[in-house]
Amino acid sequence: MGTFKAIRIDKAEKGTTAALTQFDEAELMEGDVTVAVEWSTLNYKDGLAVTGKAPVVRRFPMIAGIDFAGTVEQSSHPAWKAGDKVVCNGWGMGETHLGAYAEKARVKGDWLVRLPDNISTRDAMAIGTAGYTAMLSVLALEKHGLTPASGPVVVTGAAGGVGSVATAVLSKLGYHVIASTGRMSEADYLKGLGAAEVIDRAELAGPAKPLAKERWAGGVDSVGSTTLANLLSMTKYGGAIAACGLAAGMDLPSSVAPFILRGVCLLGIDSVMCPLPQRKLAWNRLASDLDKGKLADITQEIALDQVIGTGAQILAGQVRGRIVVKIL
Questions:
Q1: What is the mean pLDDT of the chain?
Q2: Which of 48, 175, 223, 278 could, after both became Cys, cross-link 156 (CB 3.0–4.6 A)?
Q3: How far apart are CA 19 and CA 7, in angstroms?
Q4: Angle at 253 between CA 251 and CA 256, to 5 degrees
Q5: Can you give 248-296 as a three-state secondary structure string?
Q6: CB contact at 8 A, 70 and 93
Q7: Do 9 and 64 meet the contact criterion of CB atoms below 8 Å apart?
Q8: Average of per-residue pLDDT across 118-141
Q9: 324 CB contacts (<8 Å, ≥6 apart)?
Q10: 3-class DSSP state for residue 19?
């Protein structure tokens, strides 16, 4: 047993502390698969964890990071052997189970998904939990019956991680995508991803009417709060919104009017405890429905020692698209 580099979060007198340090392999938690972590990523939840801005971490010490991609080193799980390329998202990593910002991770084999042949470990983290969540949202809208012929779809927080991937995937599938952003300076970026229209998030601010003019057949919302309330009030008869984030807050100041007068559905998206068959489907669909060129355009790379500082930037809305973290 040796040590390895990791971002460790500890309880402090006031809040938490986070630092890049050496972690003892003997302190890894129980699991039947040990993975050499090659790449991780930086999501909004990771930003909350490393800055201590929200009580994401629920045991100490904690290694931050909610998802990783890498190569199996050791396994006593029947599905996995040394050399397998795997991805892991959620399951409480970085919250209740030691996470991904480390050179090693030990997890349950049942948490892992085999990487599709055409997705590298780096690409897997360019997608990351944000992109995987975006795909779960698209799958939910499709299950509801939404098709490109249904009408336009809206994506909120479109310049962020979830929004960027959702915009790219939905446009490739043939949808007319309306991208909502608080950074209109990113309009060209969003149109490059395939957005047909870009609107200012101010159009979705302020108290929501019980019913407003019908504007879209569906949407992917990573913002929550008043934005989601306005989305619902503007959704066409029989449409649906997939809710997968809370960047603006956990509240939902809405009414029942869209649900009982227009038959609108609110589809809840959970990436953390999502069942394995749905995870596999999402990753296989990402392999076919996400343009690799667009993925490269929305991705920037940082080193492990840059995670804490960049975590503060993602909370401040200063990060565009996706960030991959080079571990090994």
A1: 96
A2: 223
A3: 5
A4: 120
A5: CECCCCCCCHHHHHCCCEEEECCCCCCCHHHHHHHHHHHHHHCCHHHHH
A6: no
A7: yes
A8: 96
A9: 39, 40, 41, 122, 125, 126, 128, 299, 300, 301, 302
A10: strand
pTM of the model: 0.92
Which pLDDT tens digit goes with each residue over 109-122? 999 999 999 999 99
DSSP 100-160: SSBSEEEE-GGG-EEPPTT--HHHHHHHHHHHHHHHHHHHHHHHHT--GGG--EEESSTTS
Q: List CB contacts of 318: < 8 A, sequence separation 6 or more.
A: none
Residue 37 Rama label (left phi>0; alpha psi -120 to 50; beta): beta
Distance CA 222, CA 15 (A): 26
Listed in sequence order, the residues at least 6 apart from 250 whose beta carbon sits closer than 8 Å to its beta carbon are: 224, 225
Contact yes or no for 57/49 (Cβ under 8 A): yes
Name the token pair of 303: 């080193």
CB of 236 closer than 8 Å to CB of 190: no
Element (H, E) at 190: helix 187-193
